[in-house]
Amino acid sequence: MISFMSVALLFVLFLILSFFLLDKGDTIRTQKSHIELLNKNIQMLILKDKDFLLYSSRDEDFYISEGLEYFQTRKSQFNELDSITLSLATNPIVKEFGVTREIRKLDSLLLAYEYGMSRMVKSMRERGYKDEGLEGKMRTSAHYCEERLTGENKILLLQLRRNEKDYMLRREQAYIDKFNLNSIKLKDNLDQMPASIDSVKLALDRYRATFAEMVKIDQIIGNSIDEGLWAELRSLATLLEGTSEVIVENAENYGSLTLRNLRYLWVFAVVIFLIGSVGMAYWLTQVISRPIKKIANNLPRKIESVQQLPPQINIETRIKEILYLQESFNAMLYELQGLIDDLEESRSNLNAQFEELQLINDKLKVSEVSLVETNKIKDKFFSIIAHDLRGPIGNLSAFLQMLVKHQDSFTRDEIKKFAHDMLASVSNLNTLLTNLLEWSRSQMNIIEPKPARVNIAEVTYRNIALFKDIIQQKELLVNVNADPDMFINTDQNMLDLIIRNLLSNAVKFSEKHGEVRLNAYKKDERIYFEVADKGLGMLPEELQLLFRQDTHFSKIGTMQEKGTGLGLLLCKEFIEILGGELNVDSIRFKGSVFRFYLPIQEVGKSSDARIQQVRLEN
User: Fold this and answer.
1) pLDDT tens digits for range 277-286
2) Coil, strand or helix: which one is 307?
3) What DSSP character marks residue 517?
4) H or E stretch covering 533
5) How far apart are the C-alpha atoms of 230 and 234, rounded to whole Å?
6) Contact 503/531 with Cβ under 8 angstroms?
């Protein structure tokens, strides 16, 4: 009875300690999750504010009504952040994390950020957009003057409107100076005219004053993201994110250490409980199981000699229970003899099956690792491509919006420049989509080469013609060394894409008045190709990144041409599909040479190669 009570008391103490440790661990995990939620909400708030200020603030409802759904939602988010911060600052567990000072700092930064955001919104709404705010008042005054002025004065007013729009587009001081100079001229002209146009003079004064006030507000807001309220908000956002990350890191470190110590304490309690239980069990065993020990000591020897029938255990005792146990063990020994034979046979079969399964399992593990890495690379690569797609599409959308909204105010040269920029964006987007389509088809193994008899010189000149405009613009000298009677049996579309991408890179990185060289020659039943330029070239570390799918590598051309980072990957894959190999040599500021070969398979008659220099002109 005493031993039973001792075990029960030990068990109760163990349960109490377990419940305490469990509750402590749950509390720590809960507060860590609150801190992580705070960090996530801060990042979401900053990101949404940035998107709103850059894009959504162009919604006219923003200037007409203050009850936008965005601000209602944002107020709720900010209140939730404030509530979480207050809860964390007063929580005793969080104080143990050692982040109380950082949380108070975070609270102050949140208030400063909210104040800065309020100033930014107020300034933007005061400045206005289209027919709202200062911009709307300015346009109303300008339209009033425009309807009532004629001759030279109307021309001066139109120049003012031109200066105003130039400032809106570029935010440069030169256009403000031009506006002020032209407005003074127009003011002087109107002062010499009769009193019948006093209303026009007043409208001109309102126009000038409103423009000046709008310029001041633009300077407060900031003409770029590195000035004014823009810079202040960016700085506060950086401090908010940094402080939040510090809080998360400290909480994670403390929480992990504390939870580990709690686990150690619980393991120690389990060990103590087990030792106590084992001790009690040992004492009880010594009292009631001495005869059973004799049977247990004899049983291993009997099992080892089970094949020598009849095995028996004989212990002299008068206890009926022990005698019954002895008879049961003897019967078990007889049955054990038959089971051992069956088990021996089964063991041999299982060993063979285990070895076979082990080989299959090893192969599956290797495949799983390869698939996981491949998926990671492709996911990262497609996220990069998605980012590159947004750039040309966003530029094109901005150009079109600007042309639609201000079509009457642009000169022919400006419209021509916009059209040229849009064509460049569309061309870049088309190249990206074409390369992306071909790359995705190659990754899904659905591209099958269709060999045909292809003339090397024709393919070369056809692809050079595609870059006629940029070659003329850069005044490049293109040297072609290809036998006009040299043929190859290969997939024409793939060869076109390879030469087109390599030629595009050579032209892209060539300086004005530079030189691009394309060679093709036969050797050892192969056709060797070279595409060389004397342009920017690459550093050795840049060469290491050219053909890696897990790293996005793209450089800007000599005329700010943007690349996709995908063309060279396609070239390498298509060349290998066609049975060839691609190599590259490059020296910084001295140019690059891309070399590859393809098997001939079938070639026509040959003649002496001749070099042609091609200067593309109108």
Assistant:
1) 677 666 656 5
2) coil
3) E
4) strand 526-533
5) 6
6) yes
If we measure between CA atoms, which residue out of 409, 402, 417, 406 comes closest to residue 157?
409
Q: Which residues of 586-609 are buried (b: 16+ CB within 10 A; e: fewer)?
A: beeeebbbbbbbbebeebeeeeeb
Q: What is the spatial distance between Cα 443 and Cα 455, in angstroms, rounded to a whole number?
A: 28
Which residue is it, tokens 């060539």? 510
Report yes or no: 210 and 138 within 8 Å, Cβ to Cβ: yes
Helix axes 100-127, 228-288, angle to 10 degrees: 150
* Strand blocks (E) in 42-141: none
Quick check: 162 and 169 in contact, CB under 8 A? no
Closest by CA to 521, choosing from 456, 473, 461, is 456
Q: What SS3 class is residue 539?
A: coil
Tell me the C-alpha distance between 449 and 441, whole Å. 12
DSSP 446-492: -----EEEEEHHHHHHHHHHHTHHHHHHHT-EEEEEE-TT-EEEEEH
Average pLDDT over residues 486-506: 92
Residues 6+ apart with CB under 8 A from 438: 447, 497, 570, 574
User: In the 8-state DSSP scheme, what is residue 537?
Assistant: -
Residue 9, judged by CB atoms within 10 A of its CB (0-12, 13-18, 19+), counts as exposed
* Residue from 358, 339, 278 nearest 3 by CA: 278
Based on DSSP, count helices (H) and strands (E) in the chain, helices before strands: 18, 8
The pLDDT tens digits for 380-425 are: 456 545 545 555 676 667 667 777 776 677 777 777 776 776 776 6
Asked if residue 49 lies in contact with residue 240, where contact means CB atoms within 8 angstroms, the answer is: no
Q: Which two tokens stand for residue 509?
A: 């990185």
pTM of the model: 0.41
Comparing CA positions, the residue from 473, 562, 479, 481 lying closest to residue 513 is 473
What three-state secondary structure class fits 603?
Answer: coil
Distance CA 27, CA 431 (A): 55
Q: In whole numbers, what is the pLDDT of the chain averaged over residues?
A: 79
| 374: its two tokens | 């491949």
* DSSP string covering 326-395: HHHHHHHHHHHHHHHHHHHHHHHHHHHHHHHHHHHHHHHHHHHHHHHHHHHHHHHHHHHHHHHHHHHHHH
Rounded Cα distance between 53 and 125, Å, is: 11
Does the structure show a pLDDT above 80 at 105? yes
CA nearest to 600, candidates 520, 518, 517, 533: 520
450 pLDDT band (50/70/90 cuts)?
confident
* CA–CA gap between residue 520 and residue 481 (Å, rounded): 6
The total number of residues shown for the chain amounts to 618
Q: Are 141 and 203 in contact (CB under 8 A)?
A: yes
Which segment, 92-96, 379-383, 464-468, 577-581, is predicted with the most confidence on average?
577-581
Mean pLDDT of 119-132: 85
Q: How far apart are alpha carbons 375 and 120 in whole angstroms?
A: 43
The full 3-state SS of 195-218, as one line of letters, equals HHHHHHHHHHHHHHHHHHHHHHHH
Average pLDDT over residues 540-551: 76
Q: Is the pLDDT of residue 51 over 60?
A: yes
Nearest in space to 452 (alpha carbons), one of 512, 493, 509: 493
Q: What pLDDT does 608 receive?
A: 39
